[in-house]
Amino acid sequence: MAARLAIVLGLALLAAVPPLLPKYALEVLISILFFGYLGACWNVLGGYGGQFSFGHAAFFGIGAYTSTLLFLHLGLTPWLGMLVGGALAAGFGLFAGYLSFRYGLRGPYFSLVTLAFAEMLRVVAVNWKAVGSSLGLVVPSRGSAPLQFLFAGKLPYYYVILGMVLGALLICRAIERSRMGYALAAIRENEDAAEAAGVNALATKLSAMAVSSFLTALGGTFYAQYFAYIDPSLTFGPAISIGGLLPAIVGGAGTVAGPLLGSFVLTPISEITRAVLRGRAGADVMLYGLILILVISFLPNGLMGWLRSRRAGAV
Amino acid sequence: MSAGLEVRGLSKRFGGLQAVNRFDLTVAPGEIVGLIGPNGAGKTTVFHLIAGFHPPSDGAIRFEGVSLVGLKPHAICRLGLARTFQLVQPFAGLTTLENVMVGAFNRARDVAAARRQAAEIVDFVGLGPRRDVAARNLTLADRKRLEVARGLATGPRLLLLDEVMAGLNPTEIEAIIGLIRRIHERGVSLLIIEHVMRAILALSHRLVVLHHGEKIAEGAPAAVARDPRVVEAYLGEPVEVRR
Amino acid sequence: MTWLFSQAVVSGLLLGGVYGLVASGLSLIFGVLRIINFAHGAVMMLGMYTSYWLFVLLGLDPYLSILVTGPLFFGIGVLIQRIVIEPNRAAAEHNQLLLTLGLALFFENLALVLWQGDFRTVRVAYSGASFMVSDVLVEVPRLIAAGGAVLIALALWAFLRMTDAGKAIRALSEEAEGAMLVGIDVSRIRGVAFGIGSACVAVAGALVTPFFYVAPDVGESFNIMAFVVVVLGGMGNFLGALLGGFIVGLAESLGAAFLPGSLKQLVVFGLFVIVLLLRPEGLFGARRGR
């Protein structure tokens, strides 16, 4: 009951407060929701399915580049281009996933192969003139054009990402309670036993991969439209891959609220560190590394896991 | 006979080791067949082959007329053949009920139906009081029941039990014997690997004895127990059959 | 064309020797601790910075500095293993992977914070020295690095074969429970293995300093190379790692010679993906039943 009240209250705050915030605070909040979104997308395959991808940037980049290129060359509104990007990313995800799962890659080997795929796409983008190579692509942003996913101020972008992250969390919740959720949990706990109990591990993992990659690509389009600039290392680089998995792990992989909670903890830490240690690039990521080590060592189920065990202990 | 399990000429080589050699086995609907033999005889390997975890090197496996060779384990489960593991493999982080629900999804249309069917099975095997306990917190005896429950929830017509009584005390063993009988009464055929002799002798309609991957005896429990080749394989004395 | 080819072969083999040493360390760590050490490249980077600072502050030649770097990073490796990894040895596999990722992020960015991202170089008297073998150019520092790397890797191989500690390490990587039963101090050996692996990669860093730029992210590319090499050569297969190093060095070099831009990386990654899919136990690893 208290949890439900907290959620309603939280949603109300998230909806009502931002117009009152100063520009910098709004930017940070957008950042928090953005990484929470990426975390939730990663969570579908990583947290719920137990398949830890280190290369989700592959899907992010596909989304960002697809919608941007369609916009630049065909004038297609990114609202639709986003869906095309998502479909392409899902296609790539199914391809990469099928290869990996069909050949029995699990655990660290799966992580390594996803890393390799993301890096390969990055190298391709760097060397491909048609997509701008290392110079990247600029998204033309002349003022406000809502139908083209372009807004004059930051506030509309905030509501877009808020909608996206809430949508992603709802999707996670729906999956968690569905037949697929049980199958994923079984695979995560013990894939062989799951197979013996009738779970089609390959099909289930591929489904999770498709959802995860599709949603991640949408995040890529958001990024392109918000920052109006993309390049290979920004979109296909490890920063995005890690940027998604870190909040999910810290907040609690395999939970609905985990990724968002993790982002609410990590992103402000990053912002504060960067503000305080101005000019010392890397201090925030250094702290991330330390936090990751501490969380794995002392809170292996993330913050949500810790909160739940405290509640269970108190009862 | 196209019903039940039919295994013909089953063989499996692992590198230089012939683990199973031209093994024949049938389990007719309604039968309880015991598969016994000394340690290392290849019994669990036979289960792995039937249930699709290893491909056979040679031979045929048919269940209700359908060939199982080359099918993935989940497909075999769909066809109505379930198995348990010698070393129990629970979904540690899930509760008893959730564990069984995973199996129930094999037949159930949706989550509500799966939960209903799983709840019925959980009560049937006697784990009702521990329905919401995480599997990792169950005792060994309860985990064994859970393993059986999960297999049963998949709605099999044939259930393969692999040393389900290993590590249990006499009281627990009695309870499992009772459970197996009740499962049989529900119309499930059983193929059981077991080392607890009195249990398997009491339960089985027919015994098959495996030694060094080959069948050395088959028949009614009493006769097999007294077969000198079997006794020699086990290095024991003829065992009294008490029903 | 053939000249380009032979030049690429030579360059590839020379750098491949270094990859082999880097990968041997990674392979050793995997063999004993069963973890894929994401922080491996970061340790190499720290080794390079150590060489750099020893050169700049004390005028110590990078090749001589390995006498310092080796023991220093052996100690650092043991410490890291003891403080961060050993307490979590029972954790889930993917969590242990994340631990090393955390270490990588920490060290790479520590370097960034301390020394900024500017490229630094070490120029010694022989940095530019080279000679010709028929029409192929051989650069002296690369030759020394390759030679040094191979020597150290072979010395390590001998250590594993002939000393008690080495045998204990091999025992542990082949049969952990058995090793415990015969009284091997498993915890200590794990620390030693991580220490040796770290020392190897740090020394490899020192060896390449005369001809490679030094920057916080330099470890990343070697990291990926090391993964590819180890997967190619077989996780835990020491000599496989050395041979794998040469193969990967060749693949990269030939890719660089015949493909435009930075597409050479595609060759290496492509090789990586193919090996992972078809033969994850490596070209030289023992086949595991799947």
Word description of this protein:
The complex is a heterotrimer of chains A (315), B (243) and C (290). Chain A has 315 residues and is mainly alpha-helical. Helix content of chain A is 76%, strand content 1%. Chain A has a two-stranded antiparallel sheet with strand order 1-2. In chain B, the strands form two sheets. Chain B has a six-stranded mixed sheet, sandwiched between helices. A four-stranded antiparallel sheet of chain B has the order 2-1-4-5, covered by helices on one side. By secondary structure, chain C is an all-alpha fold. In chain C, strand 1 and strand 2 form a beta hairpin. The mean pLDDT of chain C is 87. Chain C has a two-stranded antiparallel ribbon with strand order 1-2. Chains A and C meet through helix 5, helix 11 and helix 13 of A and helix 4, helix 9 and helix 11 of C.
User: What helical percentage do the residues of chain B reach?
Assistant: 25-40%
Q: Reading side by side through the largest sheet of chain C, how are the strands ordered?
A: 1-2
**What is the approximate shape of chain C?**
globular
The CA-CA distance between the termini of chain B, in Å, is 29 Å
**Lateral strand order in the biggest sheet of chain B:** 6-7-8-3-9-10
Short précis:
The complex is a heterotrimer of chains A (315), B (243) and C (290). Chain B has 243 residues and is of the alpha/beta class.
Main attributes?
heterotrimer, A: 315 residues, mainly alpha, two-stranded antiparallel ribbon, 14 helices, 2 strands, 76% helix, C: 290 residues, 11 helices
Write the layout of secondary structure elements.
The complex is a heterotrimer of chains A (about 325), B (about 240) and C (about 290).
Chain A: H1 2-16, H2 23-48, H3 57-74, H4 78-102, H5 107-126, E1 137-138, H6 155-177, H7 179-189, H8 191-196, H9 201-227, E2 229-230, H10 232-236, H11 238-251, H12 258-276, H13 283-298, H14 302-314
Antiparallel strand pairs in A: 1-2
Helix pairs in contact in A: 2-6, 2-9, 2-11, 2-12, 3-4, 3-5, 3-9, 4-9, 6-7, 6-9, 7-9, 11-12, 11-14, 12-13
Chain B: E1 5-14, E2 17-27, E3 32-36, H1 43-50, E4 58-63, E5 66-67, H2 73-78, E6 81-83, H3 96-104, H4 111-124, H5 140-153, E7 158-162, H6 170-185, E8 189-193, H7 197-203, E9 206-211, E10 214-219, H8 221-226, H9 228-234
Parallel strand pairs in B: 3-8, 3-9, 6-7, 7-8
Antiparallel strand pairs in B: 1-2, 1-4, 4-5, 9-10
Chain C: H1 2-33, H2 40-58, H3 62-85, H4 93-115, E1 130-133, E2 136-139, H5 140-162, H6 164-174, H7 176-181, H8 186-208, H9 218-233, H10 238-258, H11 264-278
Antiparallel strand pairs in C: 1-2
